[in-house]
Amino acid sequence: MRKATLPFLIRLFLLVAVTITALTTPVRAAKSELVIGITQFPSTLHPGIDAMMAKSYVLGMAQRPITVYDQDWKLVCMVCTKLPIIENGKAVPETTPDGKQGIAVTVTLLAEAVWGDGEPVTTKDVLFSWRVGRHDKSGVVPKEFYRRLYAIDVVDDKTFTLHFDKLTFDYNDLGSFNLLPAHIETSAFAEPETYRFKTAYETDTGNPGLWLGPYLVSDVESGSHLVLTANPHWWGAKPAFDRIIVRVIENTAALEANLLSGAIDMIAGELGLTLDQAIAMERRHGDRFAIQYKSGLVYEHIDLNLDNPVLADRRVRRALVQALDRDAISTQLFAGRQPVAHSGVNPLDWIYAEDIPRYAHDPETAVRLLDEAGWSILRGGIRHNAAGEPLVLEIMTTAGNRSREMVQQVLQSQWKDIGIDVRIRNQPARVFFGQTVSERRFSAMAMFAWISAPESVPRTTLHSDHIPTVDNSYAGQNYTGYRNPDMDALIDAIEVELDRDKRRELWRRLQYLYAEDLPAIPLYFRAEPHILPKWLTGVIPTGHQFPTTLWVENWGFR
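Structure (tokenized):
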């Protein structure tokens, strides 16, 4: 019997994957339905718990923030009537009761805004959402936003005034204030410590009253797909599709095969094919699909667990970076479309600083740094310290993402060249983000991307007050455990500096400190390939943390 070749086995695997998907895909109706493929399943659908792009992508169709950055990177209203600014009198600087410089921001919700069960969106929802967000045990993030929001005055059912204890440059950015339906969620919040498990977003996901967008989440098959149906109470433009199915296919090769077979119509740029796959697909199938490449504020990096005594030594962190040829990774794996990152701030953002430390590929310096850090004994190709302990680290990322797994292998090889034994252990995205990263269960390194808004202050990811712990119900996003008083002070100063030139200098100092300390290993800034059918119209990539789906009512077909 002839031995099967590897290419044949790969083709067979993809054929089986496509067949299984076709058998489990809900029946589709032409043009009344759109099927989207993504690579991750949301760990939760609660708007305020866990930070995960898969959740944001789905909720973009079923929720609406009060304000949002649009496709032109401008802050605009979504559920409010007018953007509050100092110039129009809707935002007024004031002195707080304890003598601080604060600001009062008055917001009026759209009169026509209602939940998916027809219940009006009112200030009752605003007050309830604030109460949930402020509670230490609710699990809602970002805590800093709710802490600063120390009082709310109700004017009427639709108008309210928010009182913040700081006058920040982004005082009217309310994208973090996730509205929750008080008429449904109040009972679940009776015991705040267990709220994240008892919320209707977990126990009664199909309840239309949870949703505030053009679509309702009507069915969830964990790990497989989500079904969204048109919201009969939606007040905006009528969406073109009666039903949208979001299928989760974690393996990107299988995701591509499903697109080519017609099992899905499009692949989301936010959570889809790797750049190299998209480039290859465009060469082979560019006549069938419209492929849009969008560079943006997507920072691929490796968070380092600084409680690990090996990684607590900055010399080891620098050695890890200087052992890497990140330029070659960008050029050879991504055709130069994903530039090397030197900090978390993208060159597309106006606050980007050129004059910060940059680490070129320099294995000799990396070896010297490891020797200085006490890892000078080479045995069996692996470095050991004086106590005989080997230099072994673990790196984790989302399983099935071909690009990340490919990069992992390159990193592993380059670190092995200087005597560091790096072990790869990956997990499904819902586990990786839902527990491992958010609860700091990774022992050494976690590779993923931060997706931010323009000029996004990294308080939740770098400030020492935002390290997730059991006591704060893992509400922080400082997964590295980074603690630096100078960084804390810079973050505090940036937020309250209204002068752009002075703020730019503070941002430069922040980027410089980040590059010096290296709480994370910067890799590259991603370009997102959106793979769309040529009959689909209206999809405009944003290039920042707010996904294309927030404007899903503008999508249509030729």
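Residues 296-527 form a domain with the Dipeptide-binding Protein; domain 3 fold (CATH 3.10.105.10). Residues 6-24 form the longest helix (19 residues).
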